[in-house]
Amino acid sequence: MPVMRLLSMFFTNGKTLKRAMHHLNKSGHIQLSPKIYKESIQFHKSVVISGSKVGETIIEGLLTIPKSVSVKFCNVTISPITHIYVEGEVEFEQCHLDGMDTSVLVTVNGGKITASHCEITDAADRAITLQKQSTGVFHHCKFQNNGKAHIEVDGSEATIEECQFSEARYAYWIKNNGLVHSVKAHLHHQLDAQIYVDHSTFIDQGSLIERGEDHGIYAKKESNITLENTTLRYHKKPQLLVQRSSLVGSHCIVQHGTDVGVSLRDYAEMNFSYSEVSQHENANIQVAKRSRLNLEHCHIYSGKSFGIQVNDKSIVNFYETLLKSHKLAQVFLSGESICSVKNSLVKEGKHVGIYIEKKANCTIVESKITEQSNSALSVIGGQLTVIDSEIMYNFGNAILGMSNSTIEVDGSKMYNNDMAHIALKANVKMNLLNSELYNGKSLILDTRCNVKGVNCKFYESENVQIEITEKSTLTLEQCRIFNGKSYGVKVLKNSNFFFYDGQISHHILTQIVVNDSSAVVRDSELYKGCRNAISVQNHSEVLVQDSFISKHVQSQIWLDLESTIELKGVQLTDGFHSDLYAQNQSEIYVTDSMIRNDKVLYNVRAVNFSKIELSKTIVDNRLGDTFYSENNSFITSSDL
């Protein structure tokens, strides 16, 4: 039998661990017997200590490992009354550290700990504490039922691979510029935040963090979090809470939370890509108190509240992101917050698609918003910009604007919405450019709204294409309004309509109705209507200049109830009824114009105290007489 083996047997079976250390051979290895070693030791030499393979080897007492000393324990149980203090290096392999009566099992003070395939359980306070620039490396370990924290990293670093953590207040407690890098860990059933990061850094790859009583990850005080392929689920408070810190995540899943999925507060920043956030009782994502959120290639869906809730001057950006199936607004913006949406899809919401209020600002570019149970976009006291986007198949409006909002739409399409594509009320200002609104009522302005449209198309409406009411103003330039199954434009209740260089055609009812309001039509064409081209009534005033009006089934221009119209440089041709008709104290003034009709006699008519004055105007009727007046009305024509 070799001498080394004889010495090993002598020291372990008959003597103490301390004496075995004193007679340590050159191999630096001690093989312990299956028994309990009750003693406190300060190691002065590097050593490997192995427990018995046939029975349990237990060590009890205070073990101190000073600087420049390395101690490795293999297959050893560290008893409940043992505390290990490390300034050098310690390694545990296939060990059980049981700390039922110990506040802290292992304290590493400027040293290093390595543990693999170990069980570390039942510490009264903390299982492992790393402090003063210590290092910890943990592989395939199981931490269970430790009091305040499984691992405390205080100004130190830890690497954790494929470990399991359960039943403590915190799994990782990282503070004072600490750093933890974990890979494929499994954390569950902690009482507080499973990972608590305080002015520190946490990096994770592929871990599962689930079923905690509080947060999954809580980061605060300028911490930095990096997540890749991380899953958080089934937590009772916000699963990912970032406060005055930053987070970068990719290919992550956050789902099935009792509260919020992701919460950013107090100047927090988060960049999330290729990730999913879904199925939370509260908002899937909350962004508040001047925080920032960037989402790229993400799916946010199936929440029982808001999809993304943004408040307090925060900023959010979405790129190629899907939001769908939320019971409240898919995006809620308030408190001067800013949102930009690009190349994204917002669909199948149970309420509003994007809701903007209280001076918040939203810009939507090259995106689609569809199938909301309410309006696609609602803005109340906020700002909205929509560029090169499509808004369609919503049960409410495409855009609902109210209460001093400002809206700009450019290069977009709105169609097949159940309510008016654009509905504005109460001092809303809007620019509508290069857009198409069709298959639905296009535009309604109510109560002091002001809209300017340029190079737009409004067509194929089942109802009135455009309605302007209650002191509102609409200006359209180079626009076309056509193929409506009702009126083209209705101007009501002291409102104003300006139509320049455009076309209005093919409406089942009157193309333009002006009631108790005013309108200006210049350099435009009105043709092929099933009723009137322009109906002016109830104290209204209209100017038509340098325009062409033709082929209407009823009177091309019809006035009633003390209304006035002035025609300058206008051509009226090919009408199927009279060209001018004034009744009930109404007045028509025509200059430098041409009126031709070969389908009906008396194409200029005035009745019931009305008058028509023509100057430098040609009136031609191939069938015969052109003028007809009755009941104190008159028609005058001055020579060319």
From TrEMBL:
Keywords: Repeat. InterPro entries: Beta_helix, Pectin_lyas_fold, Pectin_lyase_fold/virulence, SCF-Subunits/Alg-Epimerases. Signal peptide: none annotated. GO terms for biological process: ubiquitin-dependent protein catabolic process. Residues 76-177, 208-344, 353-500 form the Right handed beta helix domain. This is Right-handed parallel beta-helix repeat-containing protein. The lineage of its organism: Bacteria, Bacillati, Bacillota, Bacilli, Bacillales.
